[in-house]
Amino acid sequence: MTRHGNNATNSSVYSYSERKKDQKQAGYGTEKMRLGKDAIKGFDCCSLTLQPTSRPVISPQGYIFDKEAIFTFILEKKNTYNKQMKEYERQKEAEIKEFRDNAAQEEEDSKERFEQTEKNIVTKRVNAFKSSDTSTNISNMREDRKRVLPSFWLPSMAPQAKKTKLVKPDKTVYCPISRQPLRVKDLVTVVWTEVRDPDNKKSMIARDERYQCAVTGDTLYDSTHCAVLKPTGHVVTMECVEKIIKKDWQHPLTGQTLTEKDIMRIVRGATGFSAANDELLAERDRPTMAIA
């Protein structure tokens, strides 16, 4: 395509650039945007509040949460479950009551039909030589058809809205990020090791270099692969795990014996590169522009 090919309007073909330009002006079609570093949270920020954590905890999937925020989330989910369960039990009791009432009504109706049949046992005389009218009339106003209302728009003939049947709620609380089952006892308290720089007078939140590895002292960034040691909650780099911890599988600070399950990887923070972050393309669905 030439330099001014996007501005060519004398072509008989509706080009891709023209279609995208019209979609943007008219507000049609799926809108996509590439997220940058500023649109993604840092590695030490809460996944719910997106702010630096004061009492951090980590989920089994490696997501950092503030203790107050994740406990509030779990409590709200449990309260919602209790409300839904009460509604479900109320509906179940109503169904049982309705079933019993219907059974009792059917029994009463069967008794009445039996009694009516016993009272009306009368021998009827059949006239075999009576001429029968073979002509059929399709009028709605003849004999019993007067009571039939074929008009579907009348209120008495319209379909009735039934109450929505509730489904038994799920008691499991799922992680708001990974959508995996989450329990309070699975959360591990994270212990950050602050960077000790006497020359830096800024507050902890305003610093670019806030935390460091608890063993090697390397500064932690969004692009650094980190892990939490489950027994104590200390944060170390994956380089430290591979070169130091996995040699004898002992905690460098306490001497405790470690296993593979005691090493919890932290989900990396915002780097803006697709190699580090999985979801960097944001989409918003809008009405599609149909082209004849």
How would you characterize this protein structure?
By secondary structure, the protein is an alpha+beta fold. The protein contains 3 helices and 10 strands. Strand 7 and strand 8 form a beta hairpin. The protein is flat, with a radius of gyration of 36 Å.
The major sheet is characterized as: 3 strands, antiparallel
Cα separation of the termini:
25 Å
Query: SSE order in H/E notation?
Result: HEEEHEEEEEHEE
Rg measurement, Å: 36 Å
**Share of β-strand residues:** 5-15%
Counting DSSP H or I runs of 4 or more residues, the number of helices is 3
Instruction: Tell me the number of strands.
Output: 10
**Structural class, judged by helices and strands?**
alpha+beta
Task: State the share of residues found in helices, binned by percent.
Answer: 25-40%
Low-confidence segments, given as residue ranges, are none
Shape from CA axes?
Answer: flat
Keywords:
flat, alpha+beta, 292 residues, 10 strands, 3-stranded antiparallel beta sheet, 3 helices
